[in-house]
Structure formats: structure tokens, C-alpha cells
Amino acid sequence: MSERVGIVGYGAYVPRRRITVDEIARVWHKDGKKVSSGLGVKEKALAAWDEDTSTISVEASRLAIEVAKIDPTHIDAIYVGSESHPYAVKTTSSIVGEALNVGQDYMAADLEFACKAGTAGLQIVYAMAKAGMIRYGLAIGADTAQGRPGDALEFTAGSGGAAFIVGSSKDEIIAEIKDTCSFTTDTPDFWRRQHAEFPRHAGRFTGEPAYFRHVISSAKKIMERNRMQPKDFDYAVFHQPNGKFPVRAAKILGFEDSKIRQGLLTPLIGNTYSGASMVGLASVLDVAKPGNKILVTSYGSGAGSDSFILTVTKNIEKRRARIALLKAIEEKEYVDYSQYIIHRKKIKTLGE
User: Which residues contact 350 (CB under 8 A, 6 or more apart)?
Assistant: First the structure.
């Protein structure tokens, strides 16, 4: 059993196309500024007609391998968490493995637990590396924008994802995973039936009994059992279905706004669902310094939260993304609503 296990490489990918909340609101005769202010979101990223969860996963994973500086054939497990897998029956994880030239000797599975499927994968590869079952494990959280036209989700559902390679070599670990825990209940705040094109949600019910109960309970649980308080952390990342919920959760838990700012990306790219908390963590690793402590808590409807405590190591100075995520997402191209609909129809046609 390995004593130390942690992240040895990371990468995040966000499509360059954007649509503003103002543009969506214009089509539905709503006040764009009011909607944007209420959600805390300015614009969202859109997958192009030839992009989906598998391509986003591959791009993020290639960046993670570049940071980790490892041979892809040494990756012994791949788990892709998403609620927009391109196939209902056909693994995304095997597509990723083939594209990365991992070989054939690896374990793989697709995971789905709404927006926390990516962190569930991170827990799995962490446990496998801890047990000595694998040399390296790849955990990915990625999604494409899903929102019924005119629904509140259409203003926030974005596209993007992040990938993390987990290993046990002390000379490679850039952020040691000190602990992880979960908090789970059967709370049906968000769902999509078989064959349904768009997910549905229970409106305001998604707030207090769903998101806040699980995020706060999970975060408190991991801090209490590690005898830590918000003041002990340099950064905190919470799942961000919009720009307001994570800010409020941080305040309830006692975290200063400055500690969540680096990882709060939803206002700029929308809610990337399974990628949301993982993309936030990638952004934090872009600037974190040796010794920094990070708290990460995801959330997935259905419902549950996964929490992690990480300590950044000195290896971060020589294993960091070549281009910081906040810099990368500045490269963008705006589309209007008609182009947005055309892209969606092309993506749907390709999937049939």
C-alpha cells in the first residue's frame, strides 16, 4: 500500500465558442442584465459541431500527460465522468484510451452521477493507486451544454472538462490527496429519463435541500475529521451550477471570497457539470505554491458531494500547465442564438 498518493498531472479544456446570457435572454424577451446578475453568469462555452465529451476528455487528458511527463502506456485505469456521454451503450473511456495511445492493458469505465461523476472517478483512481493496483490512473470530468430552450439551464449549461493523473511517486506528486469523503442521499432535484433529450429540475428545490445540504455537510465532515478549519486552507473550490451558489456556500462555511476566486469559473464559461469543480481545481493548480492547502467539494444531483483535502508539493514548480486556464479561456469566438441552435442540431445529427 502506498503511503503518499496524489495528482501528478492535470489539464483542462474549454471550447472557444461562447454565447452571452444577454443573447439568450434577447431571444426569450427577458432582461439579460437581470438574468445575468441573478445567476452570476455572463456567458457560457459551447462545444462546436465536431466536439463532444470524448473530444473534450482527450484534449484535457493530453494536457495532463504533458504536465505529468509520463509514458501514456503506464496509465492503468481510465474513468470518465459525464452526463453527456456521446453513446448510451459504448464507452467514452475506451475512446479516450485509444486516442491517447494507452495500449490495451488498462481498466476503464464510464461514470454517471450528475455533476460529481468526475470526482467519483478521482476517488476511484486514488484508492487504486493507494492499494498499489495501478501505476497511474486517469480521472476525467467533462460535459457539453444541456439545457431545454427557454429553461433556466439554457443560460448556464456550458461545455468543458478537466483531467487528472494520479500516482504514488513522491518525486512526481504535485498535490498530495490527504483525505477524501462523500455525503450522499436520495434527493431527486435533477433528472433525465431514458430517451429524454433534456434534463429536468425541481426549480428552487435544487438549492437548500439539495446543493447546500450536501456541499456544506461534506465539507464540514472532512474538515472535522482532519481537525481543520477554513483558515487552514489557502484555496477552496465548490461545485458551481451558477456564480451565486458557491459564493454563498463558502460564506456559510466561513471561507473568505479571496479563497474561492481563482477556481470560480462558471461566470466566464458556464456550468460544465461533471467538469465544474475539476476545472476549478485545475485553475487553482495553475497558481498554487508549495505547502498550499486546497479544499475541493463537488456536487451531483441525485444527490451527493465528494470532498478532498490536498496539499501542494514542491514538484508543482516544475510540473505546471504551460498555459494557465484563465489565460487559455480568453481565446474565444462569440456566436448568436441562430448559430448556437445550428451547432446543437449538427451535434444531435452526428450522434444518431
Answer: 49, 50, 52
Name the residue among 50, 48, 42 with its Cα closest to residue 271: 42
Active-site amino acid positions? 83, 115, 239
Q: Map grid coordinates 451550477 to a residue.
A: 241
Greatest Cα pair distance in the chain: 59
- How far, in Å, are 18, 66, 308, 324 from residue 164 at the CA level? 25, 11, 14, 15
Q: Which three cell numbers stand for residue 322?
A: 504551460
Q: Does residue 80 belong to any structural domain of this protein?
A: yes
Locate the DSSP E strands across 152-260. Answer: 160-167, 175-184, 190-191, 200-201, 235-238
Residues 28 and 112 occupy one common structural domain? yes
Residues 188 and 306 in one domain: yes
pLDDT tens profile 89-147: 899 999 999 999 999 999 999 999 989 999 999 999 999 999 999 999 999 999 997 87
N- to C-terminal Cα separation, the chain: 45
Helix (H) or strand (E) holding 66: helix 53-68
Strands 175-184 and 190-191, sheet pairing: unpaired
Beta-sheet strands, E only, within the chain: 6-13, 17-20, 43-46, 75-81, 107-111, 136-143, 160-167, 175-184, 190-191, 200-201, 235-238, 293-297, 304-312, 333-334
What CATH number does the domain containing 214 carry? 3.40.47.10
Q: Is the pLDDT of residue 350 over 70?
A: no
Q: What is the chain's percent helix, strand, coil content, to nearest 5?
A: 40, 25, 35
pLDDT tens for each residue of 30-84: 999 999 999 999 999 999 989 999 999 999 999 999 999 999 999 999 999 999 9
Together in a domain, 151 and 210: no
